[in-house]
Structures are given as structure tokens and as C-alpha cells.
Write a structure and sequence with these properties.
The complex is a heterodimer. By secondary structure, chain A is an alpha/beta fold. Chain A has seven helices and eleven strands. Chain A has helices at about 40-50, 70-80, 90-95, 100-110, 130-140, 195-200, 240-250; strands at about 1-5, 10, 35, 55-65, 85-90, 115-120, 145-155, 155-165, 165-175, 175-180, 205. A nine-stranded mixed β-sheet of chain A has the order 9-8-7-10-6-1-4-5-11, sandwiched between helices. In chain A, strands 2-3 form a two-stranded antiparallel ribbon. The longest helix of chain A is centred in the N-terminal third of the chain and has 15 residues, at about 40-50. Chain B has 20 helices and 16 strands. The longest helix of chain B has 17 residues, at about 345-365. Chain B is globular and about 70 Å long. Chain B has four domains: about 5-35 and about 275-390, Alpha-Beta Plaits; about 35-150, Uridine Diphospho-n-acetylenolpyruvylglucosamine Reductase, domain 2, CATH 3.30.43.10; about 155-270, Uridine Diphospho-n-acetylenolpyruvylglucosamine Reductase, domain 3; about 395-480, Alpha-Beta Plaits, CATH 3.30.70. In chain B, α12 packs antiparallel against α14. In chain B, strands 13-10-12-11-15-16-14 form a seven-stranded antiparallel β-sheet, sandwiched between helices. The chains are: A alpha/beta, B alpha+beta. Chain B: InterPro entries: FAD-bd_oxidored_4_C (IPR004113), FAD-bd_PCMH (IPR016166), FAD-bd_PCMH-like_sf (IPR036318), FAD-bd_PCMH_sub1 (IPR016167), FAD-bd_PCMH_sub2 (IPR016169), FAD-linked_Oxase-like_C (IPR016164), FAD-oxidored/transferase_4 (IPR051264), Oxid_FAD_bind_N (IPR006094). Chain B: GO terms for molecular function: (R)-2-hydroxyglutarate dehydrogenase activity; FAD binding. Chain B: Belongs to the FAD-binding oxidoreductase/transferase type 4 family. Chain B: It catalyses: (R)-malate + A = oxaloacetate + AH2.
């Protein structure tokens, strides 16, 4: 029976309008509504379904971040996860926390908790890095199945259908393994009231990266954060000759 | 951040579009309309379906008239090509179709004034049109009335951040105003499913209700001033922006709810509440209407001042949304559903109240199941289940739409009664009830694949007689428009109807403003 570790990230809700801070050091997060990264929701849903099918015995959700990351863990617990681990990273450290740090944290926890499967969303919608699953697998020296749109359990292995540029690729990985969830893997459930209430009693353990022996010192420096350039208005041209004229003017022809 | 936008579009689908800050709008209803007009045959002309309605003694449109309009608006704002005009002749819900041959698109009050003065002099009937999202056939012509569209009168004039008073032209789309206000920390005092297309002038002219009325009251309270143009072209400026102004008769009320029959609203001054810091939405499943009633009473008591919406749907309604629009029911099948929204200044305080309320409702068995959300993306998804009901029902084919106010105890009894009455009719598809239970306002909808006279006669006047017997209103918020002129007497005394006729004669002696609507002959 597999023990599953799910990584969930607290990100700015995708329906919120992003604002860049006036000092260009980042985006405004204070007082802004956050929610669980949608791809991580899909990962949680997959883990919960595995438990319902009795393929998994226990699901542990992990989130790295400030105190509010516990809200994200509560959402995971309300979806059916058994317990949560909050790795506390706040302030400046959190601003420069990167997949390279998170992957080491997840790897250590996977070992400590004796997980058979680590599953995360394929990327976070705030940084679009798409690195955590891959790096975690490398640190653990475990096989990986990324962009999973279908997972089937076999005897000591997983058959994963991956969504890749050319179409679909099917791979078989031996357990323990790392998987990253893609959009079409499943449709996450809504946490219903009885489960939301049950979730309040489920445990969340708090640890720090130091406890796990992971150094979260900054490896990058944010130089500036700016809005994308405003889209220039197009113009309606009279005929093909004018088009050719404009193309020549712009040096495109 | 590409995946953020990807998720936004996924949730939104093709039917709703949100404007960023631009006011040149792709109306979500127009997108939807093109889909529907492709799928379904053309709507029958109102003049054909209702042969008892006779064209009034108005002039026929001539080239001379068109030339005049073009001299005021220019050729590109005077639409005469049938392909262009057709969309303006049919209402969103495909119930009625007029035969207008010209659409005028003024940009200023002065242009509206010049147009109306001319039409009055020439005895040309006009049909003012906003977002064309009305549900009683009031926004499109019955015959060949000249359509005056407010779609180019979309300028925001001012926002006073101290008082929260917004002044804007009548053609501003409600959602665009909401987006603008949210950047300044305010919200509109009204919200409805048609927000992506409806114009504030139309909202005011129909005294629109919607899902926030429970909290912010009716437009008669939140609209501080109106600028309107009378039938003879005279501009009536009662565009006050003061909360308190008891100087003389409160003329603005004449234009709020008179559905364009007393004047064409050109500007609005509206008092906007501050944006709530914390919004929570709960979508609940219940077993019986009795439980719905108990829960809404208990919501009022326990959630008190933070409750901002209290809506209900029956399972037939939700089925129209989930099967026709491919949306997902988040909590599993139940006979009844409710959607509650809280809006407040303190998230923790509101959540604590909401959770306490939900816990007690569940342990008492009134609520069987539910889900809660405070993330904007989830809130939007849950609201879609209620806001897109009208759209979902249109996919069935033809919708017989009724909007009644009833005493709460009798609120739902008409639904099974009507379903039983229609059971024998072969064309009958669906009979469902949903609405603003917090305001005692039920939307009773019956659908069939296409319009059917037998079905129509089984429904009317039964539904109005039933409502009248219970001393309810035959039109809680949708207005009278074209469809309910014959039934206005069920909810208004003869003396009040006579006074309405007198006022109409005073303000529009030739009767050119939106004829065949609101007042019965």
C-alpha cells in the first residue's frame, strides 16, 4: 500500500488582477486573495482518488511558505488528505524561494515519511517554472512521470500517459516515483461541508527548512518586476498597396 | 503567467467575456446570440404571433427621415442595412422580433434631443434600446419603430471617491462600470446575470433588481439623479449627485422603472457602496422547500448584516445549467439548492459567522450538504451556477418566463402545480423555479423546443390569476415590457392605472416613446 506525498503551493488566485508594486520589486500580495495552485488541486484529487481505490493508504500534503500556507493545507485536508506538513518559510527567504529549494525539502520529507509516490502540479501559475517535480526526482534519484494525464497502478510500478508536444507518450515507472499532474488528469472535487468540518481536526505539523537540513539562502536576485508592454493599437488600412508600403516602412519587407 | 490566463479562460468559457478596462465591448450576449440564431430557426415576427396588436397611427419611415438622421449622426451611426439592423430587432431571449428598418446610435444627450424632437414633430414611433437583455420583450420594436441605441453613450463622467457617487452616460455596460469602480474600491449597488451586456440606462429604466438587492436596496434608493430626454426633445436635468435633496417633486422616480415610456434616460448619478474586503459564497443542497425557507430565515438572523445574497434553485433549474452549459454541480444531486453570499469588512469575522451558521444548519438537518469558497475563482464558478440559469434555459428552445413576487410560504407551490397542469402537453420540456428567495421573488420558467400556442394558453392566464389570488406581483423585477401589458391589472388598481395614463399623456402626448409597452391600451 502506497504512501503518497502531495506538494501544494499557495498562489495568488487566478481570478485576481495582478498588480506590480510601485518599487518594481515584485507583485502586490498583501491583502490579495490566494488559493491553491490549480495544478496542485489536480494532484491532490489524484492522490485522494488513489486512496478511495485503495491504491494508497495515506496521503500527506506539504506546503512551503508563511503562516497562511496552512490555509492551503486545510483545503487539501478538506479534499481528503490525511495530514499536512507546513514547512515554514517567510519574509525575504520566501521571496527568493525557488524550485531548487522546494525540491530538496520535498525529497527529504519523502524519505522521512517513507513515501512511495510524490505528486505535484506540473507548474505553479505564478512562476510557471515547471521544475519542482523534475528536480525532486533527481535529488531522490527516483524515476519521474511529468505532465501526467493518466496514471494506472501496476505491480510495483505506474503506467503514466504524458502530454507532450507531439501528442501522448506512455511510460512505465518503477515505484517509488515522482509524478507531476497536468490539466486533463482529473477534475478536482469541491470540498463539501462535512469534509471541511472534519478537516479542522486533522493534524498539521510545522517544521522549518533547517530542521530538514535544507539551506534556503537566496540563489537568485530579483532585479526588477514590470508590467508587460501595453499592446499597441492596430490600424485599418485601405488596400494591399498601403499594406506593402507600411511593411516596407517598418523594415519588415 | 500564461497559465493564469489559461485558467481564467477555462472557467469563463465562450459565453462570458470580461472587459479589462476598454469600453469597446464584445457583448457576451451577442456572442451567445450568434450561436443560438445558428442553432434555431428565425424568431416569428411579433406582429404575426400577436395579431391582436395593431400598429398605431404613426408615420411611415421615409428616405427624407433617414437623410435627417444622417445629417445629425452621420452615415456610420445611422444603420439601415437589414443585415446590421436585424440583431437589434430580436431580444436576447428570442421571444419577440420587430421590423424596424433603422438603428440610430447617438453619442450625446444633444443628439438624442435632436432625434426625439424630430421624431415627435414627424410622429415617428421610437424604441429606446440599451443592452437588449430585457426579459419581457420591452427592448425591441413591435412594428417599425425607430431604434435608438445607447451603445455609443458609454462615457464615465466622474467618480467622487469621497461620496462614492458615480456619474455616467446611460450606455455604460454594467460590468464595465463594476470593473472601473473596483479599481477605486467601490462596487455597483446592483448585479445581475446580464451584467456583461446590459446598460445602466436600461437597468435604471426597468428598475432592475438582481442578486444584490437584498443588501443594497432598489435603484429607487441608490440612483441619486437622472438626466432624461422627453418625447418632444426637451432635456430634463434632474442629475443631482446629493444623497439628500428634498427640493420639490422627485422627478427622477418617473424615469426609474417606466421602461422608456416617459423619457429616454441619457445620464445616471448612482451611489456606489465600498467594495467589501471579504466575500464568501456557500452553495448548499437541501431536501425540501420548507428547509429552504427555514434556512433563509436562519441566514437572515445568524448572518445578519453580512448577508448580501440569498438565492435558490430547484433541481430542474440546476439540471438546465449543468447539462446545457456543461457546468459541474459541486455537491451532488439534491431536490433544492441555495446560494448564499456574505460581504463584509473583516474576513475572519465573516467566516466565523458563516461557519457557525453552516454547522448549525447541518446538524439540524436543514442543510444536507454544501461547499464554501472565498477565493475569487471559486466564487465566480459558484455564481455561474445561478447567474447563467437564463442562458441554460434558452438552450432548451423557447422559454415561457414568469417573474412573480409571492408571500414566502406560497413561494414554491406554483411550480409543482404548473408542472402537473402541463404534464399532458407533448411540447412541454421543463418547469422550474429559482430566484431571489431573500426578496420573495420567484422566477418560474417553462421550456419547450419551440413556441406553442396550446402550451401558452395552459400557462396564461392561470399563472397570473394564481399570483393575483395570493396578492402577489405579476412582475417582481422584470417589468411589463410588451409581454405583460394585458396582466398589469392583476397587480395594479384601476385608479393607479388611470393616473399612469394621465402621466403618460402629459409627458408623451403623441405616444411615440416605446409604444405597445407597459400600459395597456
Amino acid at each position: 500500500m502506497a504512501r503518497v506525498l502531495v506538494g501544494v503551493k499557495r498562489v495568488i488566485d487566478y481570478a485576481v488582477k495582478i498588480r506590480v508594486k510601485p518599487d518594481k520589486t515584485g507583485v502586490v500580495t498583501d491583502g490579495v486573495k490566494h488559493s491553491m495552485n490549480p495544478f496542485d488541486e489536480i494532484a491532490v484529487e489524484e492522490a485522494v482518488r488513489m486512496k478511495e481505490k485503495k491504491i494508497a493508504s495515506e496521503i500527506i500534503a506539504v506546503s512551503c511558505g508563511p503562516q497562511q500556507a496552512q490555509e492551503t493545507l486545510r483545503t487539501a485536508l478538506a479534499m481528503g488528505v490525511d495530514r499536512g506538513i507546513h514547512v515554514e518559510v517567510s519574509g525575504k527567504d520566501y521571496e527568493t524561494l525557488q524550485p531548487i529549494h522546494v525540491s530538496k525539502i520535498l525529497a527529504k520529507l519523502a524519505q522521512d515519511e517513507k513515501a512511495d509516490l510524490v505528486i505535484v502540479g506540473k507548474q505553479a501559475i505564478d512562476d510557471d517554472s515547471n521544475q519542482t517535480a523534475q528536480m525532486t526526482a533527481a535529488v531522490l534519484d527516483w524515476p519521474q512521470g511529468t505532465f501526467a494525464s493518466k496514471i494506472e497502478k501496476g505491480d510495483g510500478n505506474l503506467t503514466i500517459v504524458r502530454e507532450i508536444d507531439g501528442g501522448l507518450e506512455t511510460v512505465k515507472v518503477k515505484l517509488p516515483a515522482v509524478v507531476s499532474a497536468d490539466l486533463r488528469l482529473n477534475e478536482p472535487r469541491y470540498a463539501t461541508l462535512p469534509n471541511i468540518m472534519k478537516a479542522k481536526k486533522k493534524p498539521i505539523k510545522k517544521v522549518t527548512p533547517k530542521d530538514l537540513g535544507v539551506d534556503t539562502a537566496a540563489r537568485i536576485e530579483v532585479v526588477s518586476v514590470e508590467d508587460p508592454p501595453v499592446r499597441q493599437a492596430g490600424s485599418v488600412l485601405a488596400d494591399v498597396d498601403e499594406l506593402i508600403g507600411k511593411l516596407k516602412e517598418g523594415g519588415h519587407v | 503567467m500564461l497559465s493564469r490566463n489559461f485558467f481564467r479562460l477555462l472557467v469563463r468559457g465562450a459565453h462570458q467575456t470580461k472587459s479589462a478596462v476598454s469600453f469597446s465591448y464584445i457583448a457576451s450576449r451577442k456572442l451567445h446570440k450568434s450561436v443560438c440564431l445558428q442553432k434555431n430557426p428565425q424568431v416569428e415576427l411579433t406582429a404575426v404571433r400577436y395579431p391582436e396588436v395593431k400598429r398605431g397611427n404613426y408615420s411611415e419611415l421615409t428616405d427624407r427621415h433617414i437623410k435627417f438622421f444622417e445629417s445629425i449622426l452621420g452615415k456610420d451611426r445611422t444603420l439601415t442595412d437589414p443585415a446590421d439592423v436585424e440583431a437589434y430587432n430580436v431580444d436576447w431571449i428570442k421571444m419577440v422580433r420587430g421590423q424596424s428598418r433603422v438603428v440610430l446610435k447617438p453619442k450625446t444627450t444633444e443628439e438624442v434631443s435632436a432625434i426625439l424632437k424630430y421624431c415627435n414633430d414627424e410622429t415617428l414611433a421610437v424604441c429606446p434600446q440599451g443592452g437588449n437583455t430585457g426579459l419581457v420583450g420591452g427592448s425591441v420594436p413591435v412594428f417599425d419603430e425607430v431604434i435608438i441605441s445607447t451603445s455609443l453613450m458609454n462615457q464615465i463622467i466622474s467618480l467622487d471617491e469621497l461620496s462614492g457617487v458615480l456619474i455616467c452616460q446611460a450606455g455604460c455596460v454594467l460590468e464595465a462600470l463594476e470593473t472601473y469602480l473596483s479599481e477605486h474600491g467601490f462596487i455597483m449597488p446592483l448585479d445581475l446575470g446580464a451584467k456583461g451586456s446590459c446598460h445602466i440606462g436600461g437597468n435604471v429604466s426597468t428598475n432592475a433588481g438582481g442578486i444584490r438587492l437584498l443588501r443594497y436596496g432598489s435603484l429607487h434608493g441608490s440612483v441619486l439623479g437622472v438626466e432624461a430626454v422627453k418625447a418632444n426633445g426637451e432635456v430634463i436635468d434632474c442629475l443631482s449627485s446629493l444623497k439628500k435633496d428634498n427640493t420639490g417633486y422627485h422627478l427622477k422616480h418617473l424615469f426609474i422603472g417606466s421602461e422608456g415610456t416617459l423619457g429616454l434616460v441619457t445620464k445616471v448619478a448612482i451611489h456606489c457602496p465600498p467594495s467589501p474586503k471579504a466575500v464568501n459564497v456557500a452553495f448548499l443542497g437541501l431536501n425540501s422547500f420548507d428547509d429552504v425557507l427555514k434556512t433563509s430565515i436562519s441566514a437572515r438572523r445568524k448572518l445578519g448584516e453580512v448577508l448580501s445574497s440569498c438565492e435558490m434553485l430547484d433541481h430542474v433549474t440546476l439540471d438546465a445549467v449543468t447539462s446545457n452549459l456543461n457546468l459541474r454541480n459541486p455537491i451532488g444531486e439534491h431536490p433544492f439548492y441555495m446560494l448564499l453570499e456574505t460581504s463584509g469588512s473583516n474576513g475572519e469575522h465573516d467566516e466565523a459567522k458563516l461557519n457557525a451558521f453552516l454547522e448549525s444548519s447541518m446538524s439540524s438537518g436543514e442543510v444536507l450538504d454544501g461547499t464554501v469558497a472565498n477565493e475569487p475563482s471559486r466564487i465566480q464558478y459558484l455564481w455561474q451556477l445561478r447567474e447563467r440559469v437564463a442562458e441554460g434555459l434558452v438552450h432548451d428552445g423557447y422559454v415561457f418566463k414568469y417573474d412573480i413576487s409571492l408571500p414566502l410560504k406560497e413561494f414554491y407551490t406554483i411550480v409543482p402545480k404548473m408542472a402537473e397542469r402541463l404534464a399532458g402537453n407533448k411540447k412541454f420540456l421543463r418547469c422550474c423555479g429559482y430566484g431571489h428567495i431573500g426578496d420573495g421573488n420567484l422566477h418560474l420558467n417553462i421550456t419547450s423546443k419551440e413556441f406553442d400556442h396550446d402550451l401558452h394558453n395552459l400557462i396564461e392566464p392561470f399563472v397570473f390569476e394564481w399570483t393575483s389570488k395570493l396578492k402577489g406581483s405579476v412582475s417582481a423585477e422584470h417589468g411589463i415590457g410588451f409581454k405583460k401589458t394585458k396582466f398589469i391589472h392583476y397587480s395594479k388598481s384601476d385608479s393607479s392605472l388611470n393616473m399612469m395614463h394621465d402621466i403618460k399623456k402629459l409627458l408623451d402626448p403623441k405616444g411615440i416613446l416605446n409604444p405597445y409597452k407597459v400600459l395597456p391600451k
